[in-house]
Amino acid sequence: MLLKDKTALVTGGAKGIGFAIAQTFVSHGAKVVVADIDGDQAREAAEKLGGKPTALAVTCDVTDQDAVESAVRAATDEFGSLDVMVNNAGITRDATMRKMTLEDFESVLDVHLKGAWLGTKAAAAVMREQGSGSIVNISSISGKVGMIGQTNYSAAKAGIVGLTKASAKELAYKGVRVNAVQPGLIRTDMTAALREDVWQAKLAEIPMQRAGEPEEVANVVLFLASEMSSYMTGCVLEITGGRHI
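That's the 3-oxoacyl-ACP synthase sequence above. Prediction below.
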């Protein structure tokens, strides 16, 4: 019960890695706000997590400052605090730079990087006053090495690393920690859409010779969210099975 009596907010929490994080948090005693742009899916996810008083669903577009601040207020109004913020919401719009539109570049930057900045800013406003809190940003190994066809995604995920380190320095004296994780090839709906030859090529790069599971990412996020990592801030942990080390 590493998060007993704690309140967490997970953006993009209705499915995939976000839902696995919310599920893991609940299993460790947390109350969770599932924030997702798809309100119906958020409500379904919250019901799966046990509904009230364990989980609350909110519709949230992470590129909208008012919506993000409203989600944070929902957490404090419903559960009395905000102890953990996970900036997980994301999209992909893959294409080579030659074919990528400006709209697809900007939309990915907006959801990932601006969304993480807005989430960090809103959560920090509450956590500074509490004198405690943990913010975990979901980056990607793509932000470390860069991937063909992902100039938008790689740039956004690299930006999240810079955001994490800078905000960690700003907030440390107030007792607020900010860390990030960089997942590699994780078995989700998004990666399930990959062509078989692309999937196999990615697997061949992994020393552990398998893809990761969403729960394996969630366990590392749990570590960073909890007091188990109480002397860690500004860190970026890779969850890749050894890929790109």
